[in-house]
Amino acid sequence: MADGLTETAEAKGAEAPELGLGSRVRAVTVRLRTPTLVVLPILVFLLSLTLGRYQVSLGELFTLFGARLGLADATVSQEVSTVILNVRLPRIIAAMLIGAGLALSGAAYQGMFRNPLVSSDILGASAGAGFGAALGIILSKSVIVTQLLALGFGLAAVLITYMLAGRLRRGDPTLFLVLTGILVGTVFTSLISIIKVLADPSDKLPTITFWLMGSLAAINRQDILILLGPMLVGGIALLLVRWHLNPLSFGEEEAQAMGSETTKMRIIVIGACTLMTASAVAIAGIIGWVGLIIPHVARGLVGPDYGRLLPVSAVIGAVYLLLIDDIARMAGPLEMPLGILTALIGAPFFIFLLARTRRAWT
Fold first, then answer.
1. pLDDT reading at 352 higher than 90
2. What is the band of 50 on the pLDDT scale with cuts at 50, 70, 90?
3. By the number of CB atoms within 10 A of the CB, which of 73, 128, 174, 204 ranks highest?
4. Integer Cα distance of 324 and 340 in angstroms
5. pLDDT tens, position by position, 89-129
6. Residues 6 or more apart from 7 whose CB is under 8 A from it?
7. Over the chain, what HEC string results?
8. b/e burial code for range 82-105 (CB count within 10 A of at least 16 → b)
9. pLDDT, tens digit, for every residue of 282-315?
10. Please, which pLDDT band fits residue 333 given cuts at 50, 70 and 90?
11. pLDDT above 90 (res 248)
């Protein structure tokens, strides 16, 4: 009996260090999560500035920024300065802003609609903005006018969705918003198809088709100024009300029981998400799947609490789209549209998501 007790004590003593090590590993992982999310965007940002058909070293990069900030006397060639400041830097900033905005919108919508398969274009913003851009192209409008048309029609599409859902509502308001958004998006997608049929096949049609697939190839400093305002307004608005998304994710009645002003919060969330999604489409075309897959990645890292989920989604979305854009401009002799690459990654993830949630749907 004594021998048995001794063996049991020794076994417990042998297991204790293993359990303690596992706990310490998890604790270290949690502590390293925040520094990683801070350092990773900076590293990817610097790496992206050096990548391209015109090679730029890190030394030249630091010399350029040091000279611009007055921290160094050395200079770089005019070619390096032009490539970095006029070509790559605006494109990289746009990729990070758009990735963060689409990821924020997707995460907020998934919580508000209580559906893990919802993305940032669920209410028709992308289809409306796409129609506005196609209309501007076929009418031979300037780039700025085309972008403004895209932004305006994106906002108008969601406004139509919200008004129709309010008039037709017969039960759960979030369900009717989703259904109405799908219908409005379908109408605008059909209008895009009509414009493509009417467009000149040798000039306008290729421009419309390529633009709708999404690209950052033509981004310049002026585009950043147009993009920055809506992204900041929408992103800050979502981050300020992110704590209210937790009760909304429980449902309408539960959120009201917790004291949440559901109608007010829904308007703020929809307005912010629409502003960011429509401005992203207006500048870069339709870039799908970011708002669907990134919130799931962030949720796997920090859990479902929207106080942490939204900021982490923004960071991961910015890094993700920047890496995708690096691949798009480096993968071959011709630049690949972003929408194709995000779909190639997003579709397998969507299948994986369906397989995981299959039991909950049956």
1. no
2. very high
3. 128
4. 10
5. 999 999 999 999 999 999 999 988 888 878 888 899 999 99
6. none
7. CHHHHHHHHHHHHHHHHHHHHHHHHHHHHHHHHHHHHHHHHHHHHHHHHHCCCCCCCHHHHHHHHHHHCCCCCCCCCHHHHHHHHHHHHHHHHHHHHHHHHHHHHHHHHHHHCCCCCCCCCCCCHHHHHHHHHHHHHHCCCCHHHHHHHHHHHHHHHHHHHHHHHHHHCCCCHHHHHHHHHHHHHHHHHHHHHHHHHHCCCCCHHHHHHHHHCCCCCCCCHHHHHHHHHHHHHHHHHHHHCHHHHHHHCCCHHHHHHCCCCHHHHHHHHHHHHHHHHHHHHHHHCCCCCHHHHHHHHHHHHHCCCHHHHHHHHHHHHHHHHHHHHHHHHHCCCCCCCHHHHHHHHHHHHHHHHHHHHHHHHC
8. ebbeeebbbbbbbbbbbbbbbbbb
9. 999 999 899 999 998 898 888 889 999 999 999 9
10. confident
11. no
Q: Which superfamily, per CATH, for 39-351?
A: ABC transporter involved in vitamin B12 uptake, BtuC (1.10.3470.10)
Per-residue model confidence (pLDDT) at position 10: 43
CA torsion sign for 249, 255, 261, 263 is positive
Average pLDDT rounded to a whole number, residues 339-349: 88
Answering whether pTM is above 0.85, one says: yes
- Mean pLDDT across the chain: 85
Mean pLDDT for 11-16 is: 43
Tokens of 52: 């391209």
Q: What are the residue boundaries of the structural domains of the chain, listed by start?
A: 39-351
First to last CA, the chain: 53
**Which amino acid belongs to residue 241?**
V
Polymer length of the chain: 362
For the ranges 256-260, 282-286, 334-338, the lowest mean pLDDT is seen at 256-260
Asked whether 252 and 175 are in contact (CB, 8 A), the reply is no
Radius of gyration of the chain measured on its C-alpha atoms: 24
d(CA 51, CA 326): 7
Distance CA(74)–CA(63), nearest Å, equals 6
**What six digits make up the tokens of 148?**
């403004």
The two three-digit tokens of residue 42, written as one number: 């900076």
